[in-house]
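Replying to the earlier thread about multi-chain prediction with a worked example.

Input:
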Amino acid sequence: MRRHPPSLVLIWLDALPGDLLREMYWRGELPNLAEYFEDGVFIEHAISCLPTVSESNEGGIATGLFAGETNMLGERYFSRRRATMMHYKYNARPDDDFGGRLRARSIDAVVGDAVGMGRLLREGFTTIVDLVASHYERSGSLRIVERRLETASRVARSRKPRLLFFTVSADYIAHVSGSRGAELRAFLREFDKCFPMLAEALREAYGEEGYAVFVFSDHGVSDVSRHLNLPSLLEGYGFRPLDTGLISEQECDVAALSNGRRSGLVYVAHPSEGWRKRPSYKLLRNYPLRGSALDLPGLLAREEGVDLVLLRRGKSVVIVSRDGEAVIEHDSSSGKYRYRVLKGDDPLAYGAEGVWMSEEEWLRASYRTEHPDLIVQAYNLFKSPNCGDLVLTAAEGWDFWEEWDVPYPRLRASHGGFSRAEMDSFVLGRGPCLREGVVPVARLLDLYATIVTYYRAGHLAYDSHAVERLVTPEPS
Ligand SMILES: [Zn+2]
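Result:
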């Protein structure tokens, strides 16, 4: 590695589907990006963190850890201690849940002198809040692209931070226009058009060999036309669900919160101990309610709008689908995972059943399936104290949107789920000592390993899931 690590520019295109980028990039519809990254690297399939929301992926890039380990499951969760919904826009802060131990090993701490814009985490670096950009984002205006790149160019020139990490959000546009909508294509074309302005500013600020740039999306979206209201559904089962429109302590025996609208966290009170105690696997499959015993995961998995139900069973994680059940096991001495069908049809249809495999082997075996990387990531999801007792993913074409939530004029796509459309992102990179050409597959959080390797702290990645795939050893 060179004497001075390069400055780093991370450009995070929120909710931009990997499929769309690949299509437009290879068809020559993004000429400026193609020219700039010709000498760079293109990770064609960068698998996002579960659930496919911004929180989990920012946490993953910042630390190399999965959402269950960073505690970043989405903008809402339920606090059993307070019997209250916690929401990052109102009564909770992601930085509080993320925790100081992770902060010390985050890219912001390792690189130092970081400036962030549009990030959800806000501590440990300088934050720039751009109210005009927020307005453009909320109204779905393409002017957000030029505004963000202009501001970033100005910051690079005037302040020259070592780490400049900012979003250009397509989230609103993706929600209202759908995963293949003309507006999303226009967003990418606009980004391509404005990119040379930023590239010029970076060259001026840092010198030709003084910086590396990464452009990526955190997750994609999945088109939806039908909505399953989880609190109403659970009320129909006989529960008293949390009113998700009210942030206050409530008397309830179940709480169902969706994040990104296609993943659901369901928290269930213990039948005799209330919120003090988590119900066991046995109880969740035999839950006493109004004189009957409900198999909650089984019932939910048979609902039309639900794809999978996941829950913990001891140290394993069980996956329940409409037609079958399977278990994910982990062997801590070898670090390998095994997936076995317990009954009925294989919920994931991976064809790798019964074999102990490493995280890398699971990534390669699953990234082209409909549920990329689900074995490794679903297992780790339940490590978070904020996780629900049941984790739900929506079926194709469905989400868990509640009509009062977010005033979109229409909702054509959602995210948060574990489908390929949501999980299959990309990374474009160029910088000193960075390899050239196509890397077929990686995890998005592998960026962590690349960044800490640049900054001579590659050992930090050994305690994470991130694998360094991009930096080439310097010829001596
Ligand atoms: Zn996002």
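The longest helix spans residues 182-206.

Feel free to reuse this layout for your own posts.
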